[in-house]
């Protein structure tokens, strides 16, 4: 019944796994806020170019729901991505990956705190397995690596990103009933606007790096796949199965990120990669089987 939602969420997390690789590749080629600025600039241009008639039809609803659409663009698009791209400049890839698997936990906590949303024991077991899958990937199959984790400025910035995306996911329950193109275009436009002062801050502090050829290529990837494709599919997934269940799929991001690192960065595929993928997928299957009757 929910096969399309599962497919949407797997593709979305695959694109976000690529975003993690792009973030690492971007260092030295384009600065974090400049990447955020151009990413949403390109994304807004592309989505508006293919949806102007739909935007006009949806405008009366958009006007009534601007606060939530602005919130989605600011928190889910600008804060999350700006914080992530900044964090990788100050902390290790292991730390950032470990920290991202906490997003579903924040979603569960926020949903319970605000709406007393029920969670079954099987869902908790499924969440634990997917968490272990992401964690296994993050430490490269060696639990002893956790001992070396240290908290620094980058980790603090990453916690902001994690909380931002959890809030974004929960807030999708208040999205207006508009076409998916409009739901993508309006927050993306505001994300672009809110990123302008961040670029100004980067320039004023002498941190701005104008994109070179590699920087532009990375930006286009993030605009098309990590922004448009992933966000639209994630929204559709949340729409069909809810934030709690969709949030579990986020634990596939570190798994896909590692697998893409093998393909893009030439890292060697190892058995723990396969084990992590099995844990993540198995955990999602168990959580889906144990979902409360209300979904």
TrEMBL record:
The keyword Transmembrane helix applies. Residues 4-137, 153-286 form the EamA domain. This is Drug/metabolite transporter (DMT)-like permease. GO terms for cellular component: membrane. The chain crosses the membrane at residues 38-56, 68-88, 94-114, 121-139, 145-168, 180-201, 213-234, 246-265, 271-287. The keyword Transmembrane applies. Its main location: membrane. It holds the Pfam family EamA.
């Amino acid at each position: 019944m929910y096969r399309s939602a599962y497919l949407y969420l797997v593709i979305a997390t695959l694109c976000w796994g690529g975003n993690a690789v792009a973030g690492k590749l971007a260092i030295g080629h384009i600065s974090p806020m400049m990447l955020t600025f151009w990413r949403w600039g390109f994304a807004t241009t592309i989505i508006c170019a293919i949806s102007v008639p739909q935007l006009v039809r949806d405008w009366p609803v958009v006007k009534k729901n601007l606060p939530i659409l602005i919130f989605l663009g600011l928190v889910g698009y600008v804060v999350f991505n700006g914080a992530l791209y900044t964090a990788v400049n100050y902390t290790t890839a292991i730390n950032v990956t470990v920290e991202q698997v906490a997003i579903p936990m924040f979603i569960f906590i926020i949903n319970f705190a605000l709406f007393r949303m029920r969670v079954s024991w099987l869902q908790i077991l499924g969440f634990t397995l997917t968490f272990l899958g992401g964690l296994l990937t993050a430490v490269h199959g060696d639990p002893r690596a956790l001992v070396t984790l240290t908290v620094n400025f980058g980790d603090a910035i990453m916690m902001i990103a994690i909380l931002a995306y959890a809030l974004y996911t929960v807030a999708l329950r208040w999205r207006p009933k508009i076409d998916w193109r409009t739901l993508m275009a309006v927050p993306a436009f505001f994300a672009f606007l809110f990123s302008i002062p961040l670029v100004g801050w980067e320039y004023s502090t002498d941190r701005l790096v104008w994109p070179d050829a590699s920087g532009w290529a990375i930006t286009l990837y993030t605009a098309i796949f990590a922004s448009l494709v992933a966000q639209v599919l994630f929204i559709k997934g949340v729409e069909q199965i809810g934030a709690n269940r969709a949030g579990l799929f986020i634990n596939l991001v570190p798994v896909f990120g590692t697998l893409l690192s093998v393909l893009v960065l030439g890292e060697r595929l190892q058995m723990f990669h396969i084990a992590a993928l099995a844990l993540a997928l198995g955990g999602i299957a168990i959580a889906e089987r144990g979902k409360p009757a209300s979904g």
